[in-house]
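Lecture 7 notes. Example A: sequence first, then its structure tokens.
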Amino acid sequence: MTFLSATLDRVKPSPTIAVSNLAAELKAAGKDVIGLGAGEPDFDTPDNVKAAAVAAIDAGKTKYTAVDGIAELKAAICAKFARENGLTYEPAQVSVGTGGKQILYNALMATLNPGDEVIIPAPYWVSYPDMVLLAGGEPVVVECGIEDAFKMTPEALEAAITPKTKWLIFNSPSNPTGAGYSWDEMKALTEVLMRHPHVWVMTDDMYEHLVYGDFTFCTPAQVEPGLYDRTLTCNGVSKAYAMTGWRIGYAAGPKELIAAMRKIQSQSTSNPCSVSQWAAVEALNGPQDFIEGNKAVFRRRRDLVVEMLNEATGITCPVPDGAFYVYPSIAGCLGKTSAGGVKIGDDEAFAKALLEEKGVAVVFGSAFGLSPNFRVSYATSDEALKEACARIQAFCAELS
């Protein structure tokens, strides 16, 4: 249709949402499908958080709020950053949006001019490049292969920086790989950034609390205080608190940037849901002990999936540090033909044939900018994961 914006030609719909929708449609049609595409915990929101939302409704806290967050939530966010990350912010440095995605989008819209470059390590969350394009910028994708544990090296970061670089988008632990950067690895990257004072850092710390084993989370401004004045530290309640549908994300950074993001939000969505904001206050200020229990479940599922996928012919699956995803390579499957006659030329063909022939929905690696891989979300029941991995093993065993 000719009246649509030419900007739409620069972007594509979210592949992860498309996979989840397709799996749901096939299930509704009566097909036996196991969906491993959804990026959300299968746990329920904690009872104390739900109770806080009900209390807010009963108290009539259902009106418009300040555009970018109630004072109580901003105070809780400041306390969280001080308590958990050693970062000191005041409420004027905090923005609350309708999910983490809006926070990132607002920041890009508020800062990018045509020709500005944004460095994005790949594999990346599917929305990063398209949000940059919508905001008029140019994504600069840096491939971080399995040989580097899906992590960007200081040398690769240095090589990607140009005079046009405006931002580095940094996600640890990563969606889709679960790879996390240690303090020393982060320090090596921040040393590069300190040599380039025109480059700002946008962190996506959404999986901060979902880390396993000896891995310890850290964020760039915490590791290098010299980056504080050009870092937007982004987070939210979606993953750790099982609150994906409540749609609350937040960030802290320089006052001027936060004010610009507030202006964007004031003319788009205005305030996030009032009830969700009060629920988020309780999430951040209330008991945190349930997180350890959830992590233990996720770690068990991670180990199950990694072990079973590594037993599949042609698949190599690294062990992730955090989040609830694995990102196995199918390099050993390429060039083969499935039992249904599909030539496995790339990871998209693999994922489509796997869904059609075995009823397992995964997201193909090219959606995340690095092939030949696919993403599995293990945020579902042990039984579903065992059955799905058994089907993937059978699919690979039948390749010829």
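Example B, a different protein, same format:
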Amino acid sequence: MPRWEPNAEERLRAAAVELFELHGFDGVTVEDIARRAGMSRRSFFRYFSDKREVLFGGQDGLGAVVASAITAMPERGSEAASRVVFSVLSEVGEFLTVDRIAQRRRRTIIRSSADLRERERTKLASAAATIGSALVDRGVAQGTLLGAIAVELFREAYEHALDDDAATPFAERLASAREDARRLLGA
């Protein structure tokens, strides 16, 4: 086996998903994943801090990318902030749902494990807190609440995108989730 092969992170991710589907999340070790990918255990830890991160790697970036856009906003205020938040979330959602089959596989694995479901809730809560903090720093009243609502609407639109094979743009799905929330809150 060569010392280095390209696409190591993706090979590890693919091996992990295959093994999780075959044996369940708890039935797979880091060693199993590394072996399946033709790599060492040590190589695994160059890319992931633990086997859960194979499914959640990059999710920490959700809050950070939205917060960065909020910080870069030329204008202040709730309306401008809301436009920026939902614009960035639309772009992220569009990117994530390009490969719905892979995302469905990931979701099935996460749903099969209480530990993974809790990890997902924690990651989403962290994204909401990061977004909320950036909004508060920009003077948005109830920025923390807006951050939490935005992430929950993003999650809802994401779930609908995975459940539906229609080619509906993610921005439309997110706008629909926002409109549903407005109607619910207005009732």
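Note on Example B: The chain has two domains: 8-54, 58-186. Residues 58-186 form a domain with the Tetracycline Repressor; domain 2 fold (CATH 1.10.357.10).
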